[in-house]
Amino acid sequence: MSVRVRFAPSPTGPLHIGGVRTALYNYLFAKKYRGVFVLRVEDTDQSRSVNRAEDYISETLNWLGITPDESPSNPGAAGPYRQSQRKKIYQKHVQLLVGSGNAYLAFDTPADLQNLREVAAQKGKRFIYNWENRKEHKNSLSLSVEEVNALIENNTPYVVRFKSYSKGASGSLSLVDKIRGDVVVDTSLLDDKILVKQDGMPTYHLANVVDDHLMGISHVIRGEEWLPSMALHVLLYNAFSWKAPVFAHVPLILKPTGKGKLSKRDGDKFGFPVFPLRWDKHTLGFKEAGYLPEAMVNYLALLGWNPGGKEELFSLKDLAGLFSLDGITKAGGRFDPERCKWFNQQHLHKKNSAFIEAYLDELLQQKGVANTGVSTAAVVGLVQKRLTLLTDLWDESHFFYVAPVVYDEKAVRKEWKEKTPGILSEIVKVIERAPNEEAETSRAAIKLWAGENNVSLRNIMAPLRIALVGALNGPDVFEICHVLGKKNSLERIRSAISIL
Ligand code: GLU
Predict the structure, then answer these.
(1) What is the CATH number of domain 409-499?
(2) C-alpha distances in angstroms, 477 versus 231, 379, 441, 491?
(3) Which residue, judged by its Cα, is nearest atom 2 of ligand 1?
(4) The model's pTM
(5) Ligand 1: distance of its center to the CA of 10 in Å?
(6) Structural domain boundaries of the chain?
(7) What's the CATH code, domain 88-196?
(8) Could you give the percent of the chain with pLDDT greater than 90?
């Protein structure tokens, strides 16, 4: 069987991280089986559609490197890839269902339905429009052909409903889900779902099933929230006499506490993003928060899927080689912000340094720092292994570019002693005399001087660091000296001596 999978988001806002993971699993599955990954935009509900959302979805998939093989902007033979452009296709197909007796027109007004609900509620029941009562309502099953035609001619609004079960039929429907296993559903308990709304637009169920079939989708991999719709979808496939795809419902991503679905509010509360990219000024994405796409892909892939073995760090390509629906867990995956950061740190440390250098160059430009004489490559060489988020880069490297003007008070109180200026004045001479600017040369020279003069190294290193960095953090002091160069370093030491 040739594998064709799809990611089918509704463009109603920024893509939640759960949606991102669904897209990723579809991509991985497609790549694993040399199949096709389709992006279909489910925008039939125009009132909920948000203009920017479709671009946001594409940008997210591109950022993560999981670009679809077929999509609205890169159509294949199965288009159009936006449901709003497929209205005619749905109309044609719903007529087939009406013709075969699997669907019917219902003219009940919203007030009629409200009334039915109230009557049922008075008896402590919930009204469902189904085989038990459909003949009692105003529809093409209860009315004569003439009555129906007259209503249509008068432009009476109607919906199309699916005949989910008929009296006397077997109500037992076996469903197979690759992740959840087998379930048997009693279809006599289902309601007659609306397939086409009064405005002529299809509902999600009809459009989704028709499109999955026409687009040749072999496997439907989607969020668990759609599991309750599976029975209806299988019934629709049966009604059309189509072969249903394989279904795999992926468990939810849970809050860090493990209780309930991860929401934007959790992100605000625990201080981490839940969206891949910035949506508006209140909603930052993982990208802007300093996460690498490689890390997101790695973390999200493992959040609900177990590749087996102990290895945890994978590239997108590795993941595509290993992926299988069998490894998807039944239980929800708890989003752990710290673990997500850990993955980011690991991928940042492995990342090609040229990428981080480019990021630093851009930062320098933004900050208006020019002609520093300090090599970006050398700085990145020293700080890359100290980063957890890309956004840590300025904290870790600013002192290479901007000499300290204030000094960390606590550090000074602790490490800047009475004899420090005297010691550092001698260190200035040692550095001046050193034959070159190599870190190892100054390290050896200062060690030698400390030994000869009976000064503990700590009384040199900490003040030296304060003078160069302005605080007690940063990489190896001699490496800092080397990257700053002799001239810069000496200026900083002299200025600290005179200020402190
Ligand atoms: N449009 C649905 C959504 O927004 C698609 C569900 C499905 O994949 O069938 O999640």
Answers:
(1) 1.10.10.350
(2) 66, 13, 13, 15
(3) 9
(4) 0.94
(5) 7
(6) 88-196, 353-401, 409-499
(7) 3.90.800.10
(8) 94
